[in-house]
Amino acid sequence: RQIMNAILYVDRTGIPWRYLPHDFAPWATVYSYFAKWQQDGVFEQLTGLLRRLVREAEGRGAEPSACVLDSQTIKTSANVPRAEQGTDAGKRIIGRKRHLGCDTLGMLLTVLVTAASVSDTAAGVTLLSRIAAAHPHIRKAWLDAGYRTTAIDHGARLGIDVHPTPPGARGFTIIPRRWTIERSIGWLMHHRRLVRDYERHPHRS
Question: Can you tell me whether residue 102 is helix, strand or coil?
Answer without folding.
Answer: strand
